[in-house]
Amino acid sequence: MNKKKLKILLVEDSPEDQLTFQRYLRQDQNHIYHFLTSETGDEALEICLAEEPDCILLDYNLPDMTGLEFLAELIEAAGSMRFPVVMLTGSGTEMVAVQAMQSGVQDYLVKDKVKPISLVQALHSAMEKVEIKRKLEEHRLALEAKNKELEAFASTVAHDLQVPLRGIREYAQNLQDRYSPMMGHEDQAQLNYMVSASNRMSRLIEALLAYSRLGRQSVEYRPIPLNDILIQVCDDLGARIAATEAELIIPPDLPTVYGNATLLNQVFTNLLNNALTYHQPNIPPRIEIKATPRDRFAIIQVIDNGIGIPRQAREEIFNIFHRLHSSDRYPGTGIGLATVKKSVELMGGEVWVESAPNQGSRFYLKLLTQPEKEPSAVPAHQP
Ligand code: ADP
Fold first, then answer.
1. Considering only CA atoms, which residue is closest to atom 7 of ligand 1?
2. How many other C-beta atoms can be found within 10 angstroms of the C-beta atom of residue 143?
3. Which residue has the least CA distance to atom 19 on ligand 1?
4. Which of 37-51, 119-133, 151-165, 284-298 has the lowest mean pLDDT?
5. Measured between alpha carbons, how far is residue 346 from residues 85, 215, 222, 334 in Å?
6. d(CA 226, CA 256)
7. 178 pLDDT exceeds 80?
8. Average pLDDT of 33-50?
C-alpha cells in the first residue's frame, strides 16, 4: 500500500518539544511525515505561504507573538484560513485554547498531557474537518453560481416573452374593441378569455422578472421605520382595502428595522395582498400587525382571519409557482411568497407561517434591528 505523505509544519520554540512531537507522529505507521520546523511566528508565516503544509502544529507561546496573533496574521496573509491547525498549550492556558478554537483552530492539546495517539488523532481530525469545510464551501459556491445562472436565464426568457405577448394582447384587444358587438356569444367568450389569459401571463412575467432581479442588484441596507413602509403599502393597496372592506390594525409604534425600503415594501405588499385575497367568503378581511423585540431582531406578525393554509403546505407555499388554488377561484401568480422569502433572507432575516384551514394565518418575519456584526479579522470557524 502506498503511504500518504504529509507535510507538517511544527511552530515550536522548544527544540526538545519539536523532537518529541516528531517522534510521536512517526509512530503512525500509515503515513509518511515530512517535518518543517520554525521557532518563531514570523518565519512560520513565510514557510506556510511558500510550502503550503498539510497541517500546522502551533505552540501557543512563541518568542515573537502568541498563537492567536500568528493565526490573525496568517489569515491576513493567506486571505482566509485554509490550513488545519492543532494548537499546543501549556496547562492552565485552556481558556486561551478555547478562544483559539473560536478563531479557526480545529483542536488543541495540553502539552504535558499529550500522547502519541492523541497527537496523531488530533492532527488527522483537524485535516478532515478542514477538508469537509473546503468541500462544503466549494458546493456552496457552485450552487450560488448555478442560482445566478438560473436567475439570469429566467430574466432573459421573461424579457423575450414580453415582446410577442405584447403583440398578442394588443391584437386581441383590437379584435375585441372592433368586432365584439358583431360576434356570437361563444366567439365573444373565447376572445375575452384570450385577453384575460394574456393579461394574466403578462402579470406573471412581470412578477418573474421582479423575482429574478432580487439579489442580482446590489441593495443598500439602513435603518427603516416599518410604519413608513406600511403607510406607503396601505396607500398603494387603498383601492383593494376599500373594495374588500378590510379592517387593518397597525400599531403606530412599529420598530425600525435594518434593511432595504424596496425589499420591505415588496414583503408587506405581498403579505397584505394575500391577506386581502384569501379571505373567507362573505367575511371581510381583518389584518393585524404585531411586533415584539428578540435580541438583535424584531419579530413581526401579519395575522389574518382568512381561509388558512393546510399544515402540510406551510413550507411549500414559499416555493416559486406553488399555489394551493386555481386562478379562477383566487387570482395570483404563485410568486408572491417566494419574493417575500428571498427579500427577507437577503436582509438576513427569516419568514415562516402558522396556520390551519379556516383558522386564519399568522406570517412571522424575523428582521434585523441592527446591522449584522462586521466580519472579524479572524473568522469564527466552529470546529
Ligand atoms: P399567489 O398569491 O400569487 O398565488 P403566493 O406565492 O403569494 O402566490 O402564495 C402562494 C399560495 O399560498 C397562494 O396561492 C395561497 O394558496 C397560499 N396563501 C398565501 N397567503 C395566504 C394567506 N394569507 N391565507 C391563505 N392562503 C395563503
1. 336
2. 10
3. 274
4. 151-165
5. 33, 7, 13, 20
6. 6
7. yes
8. 94
- Amino acid 381: pLDDT: 36
Query: Is 316's pLDDT higher than 70?
Result: yes
pLDDT at 356 over 90: yes
pTM of the predicted protein model: 0.65
Alpha-carbon distance of 240 to 235, in angstroms, equals: 10
**Dist. CA 326 → ligand 1 center (Å):** 11
Residue nearest to atom 2 of ligand 1 (CA): 332
CB-defined site of ligand 1, < 6 Å: 270, 274-275, 278, 304, 306-309, 317, 322-325, 332-338, 361
How far, in Å, is the centroid of ligand 1 from the Cα of 358? Answer: 14
Rounded to whole angstroms, the Cα distance separating 105 from 101 reads 4
Beta strands (DSSP E) in 12-128 are 31-38, 55-59, 85-89, 107-110
- Residue among 248, 278, 304, 358 whose CB has most ligand 1 atoms within 8 A, to mutate: 278
